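dumping this here so i dont lose it
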């Protein structure tokens, strides 16, 4: 399979960062992206610290020029869940339809989906998407939006995006 775009997966978890719990969602997200044709160039674990999350997202977009940066974790109501705030702080343009679609798909599975604060946006030529921290929820949310991301990334990266084929059929 031809590789579509580069991607980075960032797990946001204090416990995984400290080595107290294995990262369950990062490898799941990496596998899904690779199966969809992405070349995952980074798999990172960072603590729930807004400044560290922001710094890594800026580096992925500005220095490493990854097409897609996917975070997992830190999107709930806990006081240390700051991934959406970090994403919003570094993005120049928000893409609200992506987290809206993820929440809609998740609501078919659990009413708790409405508690997700996930965000998505664009920094330069990089799309940043927040996923939940549980492996099951991360998989369900990414599967809900992955088919549409190629088109958005083609437009973002200056490729020949065919908007006439937007029906996805």
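and the seq i came up w/
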């Amino acid at each position: 399979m031809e590789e579509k775009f580069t991607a980075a997966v960032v797990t946001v978890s204090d416990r995984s960062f400290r080595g107290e719990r294995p990262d369950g969602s990062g490898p799941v997200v990496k596998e899904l992206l690779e199966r969809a044709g992405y070349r995952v160039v980074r798999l990172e674990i960072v603590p729930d610290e807004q400044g560290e999350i922001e710094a890594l997202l800026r580096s992925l977009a500005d220095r490493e020029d990854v097409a897609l940066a996917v975070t997992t974790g830190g999107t709930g109501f806990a006081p240390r869940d700051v991934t959406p705030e970090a994403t919003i702080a570094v993005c120049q343009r928000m893409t609200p339809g992506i987290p809206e679609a993820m929440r809609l798909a998740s609501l078919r599975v659990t009413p708790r989906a409405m508690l997700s604060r996930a965000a998505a946006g664009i920094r330069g030529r990089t799309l940043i998407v927040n996923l939940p921290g549980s492996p099951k929820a991360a998989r369900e949310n990414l599967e809900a939006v992955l088919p549409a991301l190629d088109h958005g990334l083609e437009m973002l990266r200056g490729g020949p995006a065919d908007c006439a084929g937007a029906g996805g059929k």
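The beta strands are 6-12, 39-46, 68-72, 93-94, 120-123, 126-131.
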